[in-house]
């Protein structure tokens, strides 16, 4: 389960950063943060993003 996600992120890093700043709910914030981390190449696998966000890998997959 810790492999690379098979999603295509079309938003730019700058756009994701702007979206991230406007999130008011923690769940939405975490979702955008995950996309930002993948798009900015700070993480490459689900295992890495789960460690950064403090969530389980299963939660990240969902």
In short:
By secondary structure, the protein is an all-alpha fold.
Written account of the structure:
The chain has helices at 13-21, 26-39, 46-53, 57-61. With 62 residues, the chain is mainly α. The protein has one domain. It is globular. The mean pLDDT is 89.
Per-chain topology:
Elements: H1 13-21, H2 26-39, H3 46-53, H4 57-61
Helix pairs in contact: 1-2
Question: What share of the residues does DSSP label as strand, in percent?
Answer: under 5%
- Shape assignment: globular
Provide the domain count: 1
Q: Helix/strand-derived class?
A: mainly alpha
From the alpha-carbon coordinates, what is the Rg to the nearest angstrom?
A: 11 Å
The string of secondary-structure elements, in order, is HHHH
- The number of helical segments is 4
Q: Keywords, please?
A:
single chain, 62 residues, mainly alpha, 4 helices, 58% helix, 0% strand
